[in-house]
Amino acid sequence: MLVERKEIKNEDNSIGYIESVFKSDNILKTTYFPANQRLYIAFGRGDTYSYGNISPEFYNEFEAAESHGKFFYKKINNNKSHPYRKEFTLYPTEVNELKRIVEDNKPEEDDDE
């Protein structure tokens, strides 16, 4: 579930990048750069990988998916069309902050998950 989404605009009002936080068992946060079609995904433990050849339409499909983890494993992970590399690992405080954002945006009736 998409919890938080921010579009950061360039001076010409085009989208520079999109940051999204997810309530997912596997994916904490994504940062997407449409101009170079690169998607950064921060996973639950903070490991962050980037994936290439992610078109804006494909990213929108990912963002709209019912399960972001399933979409990732089915259509992005180990797909030769989307070369990847490990970029960095988030600090534990950064991981905890993302988890806090998810928790703060949790629907009331969602307490049993």
Explain the overall architecture.
The chain has a six-stranded antiparallel β-sheet with strand order 1-2-3-4-5-6. The chain has helices at 56-64, 68-76, 92-104; strands at 2-9, 15-22, 27-33, 38-43, 47-51, 84-89. Helices cover 27% and strands 35% of the residues. The protein contains three helices and six strands. The chain is globular. The chain has 113 residues and is α+β, with helices and mostly antiparallel strands. It has one domain (2-110). The chain starts with a strand and ends in a 9-residue tail after the last helix. A hairpin with a 4-residue loop joins strand 2 and strand 3 (27-33).
N-to-C terminal Cα separation, in Å? 13 Å
Summarize model confidence as the mean pLDDT: 92
How many DSSP E strands?
6
* Strand content range: 35-45%
Helix content class: 25-40%
Domain tally: 1
Element order: H for helix, E for strand = EEEEEHHEH
Major sheet, described briefly?
6 strands, antiparallel
